[in-house]
Amino acid sequence: MTSMAMDFSRPLEGIRILDLTVALSGPYATMILGGLGAEVIRVEAPGGSDISRTNPPFVGKKGLNFGANNEGDMALTTLNRARNKKSITLDLKSEKGRELFMRLVAECDVVAENMSEGTTARLKVDYAHVRQANPRIIYASIKAFGEPSGYQNLKGMDIIVQALSGVMDATGYPDGPPTRLGLPVADLLAPMFCVQGVLAALIQRGRTGQGQHVQVSMLDCLASWVAEEHFDVLAKPGRPTRTGNFLHRLAPFGVYPTLDGFVAIVAFQPDWMKSLMEVAGRPELAQDPRFATRGPRLQNADALNEVIQEWTRSVSSDVVVRELLEKRGVPAAKVRTPHEVVHDPLLHESGAVLNLRHPLHGDTGAVGMGLPIRFSGSHAQFDQPAMELGVSNDEIYRKLLNLSDDELAGLQTSGII
């Protein structure tokens, strides 16, 4: 029997990533790669160049702080997104800085960036320059609208991408306005596609020996999700794009109010529908021509939902779940708050969410994203706390690039690192 204490290797051990990413989409991609075992070297300008470092709240020896950034504090966003990464500083605007960067490129497998359009070309660290230093490099780019962008001068903020993608217009109630999703879904979706692209490119490089440029657009990723739902077809008979908390073509399917909250119920299968009508005190409706089959049910979904809500409003959420799910096997669940979710012990046990640690002061009392992938023969997780800015300079420049003490001192004095 395999010992649970055995130190399994991680899936991407031996892969080295040079990380030029900032904000959320890029750092999330490289964090996933780091959690899978890649060595991620995060590069920032001396003094720090990731805007997330200035996002409150901050965490330090005095705990959480929503005010000023005190000495030794780190932004909670940095503690979350910079896990499983080494931190170095390097001035890419200088010739010497670019020379050192290309020496690092020669020692790496992947370069990742999500800078504003044209920035990498101006700095001469774009794919055209990088592949000259290492033809085997996988160069991964996340942009809001691709490069070149079809939306000149438009900044790639998540809410802008949601607006352009159609996701916002598909969210909300038919008689209400388009609604922003409560999570930065474009910022979180694009890095997942980026990681897939990087892994596929690494596999292909194993066959061909050649690197390539992997490009991901936040708008492309989110729009591909929108295309999955066939809104164009559904619009032809006059169905509204926004359906609120209900999906009429799968009725009964929706979120219903209770005495103390809300519950989600799915009962489009015949036996589920029959059980739901019995619990609601209207068993005859399971055979009613308006509701007996899914076609007529779509046309009469509003009337059906009113019947269901008449029952759910009279009982607690626990009663709904007990009567439907526990007694009859009908899918039903309470609508939980984010606070309830991130403190669910089952999700902590699975690794979906984790307690965040400060590199100097330990547990912060806050939680962050986990890596929700389990392997039977290896380990993967965001289990290495974020590092202080530049703390890996000595390790990377001295050990990886073999720089001498005098060279390091000169680089520090001149502000290159």
Work out the count of structural domains.
Answer: 2
Regions with pLDDT < 50 over 5+ consecutive residues?
A: 1-6
CATH architecture of the largest domain: 3-Layer(aba) Sandwich
Q: What coarse outline follows from CA principal-axis ratios?
A: elongated
Name of the top-level CATH class of the largest domain: Alpha Beta
Average of the residue pLDDT scores: 94
Q: How much beta, percentage-wise?
A: 15-25%
* Major beta sheet, strand line-up: 6-2-1-7-8-9
> Biggest β-sheet: count, sense, barrel?
6 strands, parallel
Structural class determined from secondary elements: alpha/beta
Describe the overall structure:
The chain has 417 residues and is of the alpha/beta class. The chain is built from 17 helices and 14 strands. It folds into two domains: 16-225 and 345-413, Crotonobetainyl-coa:carnitine coa-transferase, domain 1 (Rossmann fold, 3-Layer(aba) Sandwich); 262-334, formyl-coa transferase, domain 3. Helix 1 (25-35) packs across helix 7 (185-208), helix 6 runs parallel beside helix 8 (218-228) and helix 7 crosses helix 8 (218-228). Mean pLDDT is 94; it is low at 1-6.
Give a quick precis of the structure:
The protein is of the alpha/beta class. The longest helix is centred in the middle third of the chain and has 24 residues.
List keywords for this structure.
Rossmann fold, formyl-coa transferase, domain 3, 16% strand, 417 residues, single chain, 2 domains
Topology:
Elements: E1 16-19, H1 25-35, E2 39-44, E3 58-60, E4 63-65, E5 74-75, H2 76-81, E6 86-89, H3 95-105, E7 110-113, H4 119-123, H5 127-133, E8 138-143, H6 158-165, H7 185-208, E9 212-217, H8 218-228, H9 231-235, E10 253-257, E11 262-266, H10 270-279, H11 294-299, H12 301-312, H13 317-328, E12 332-334, H14 338-342, H15 345-350, E13 353-358, E14 362-369, H16 393-400, H17 405-413
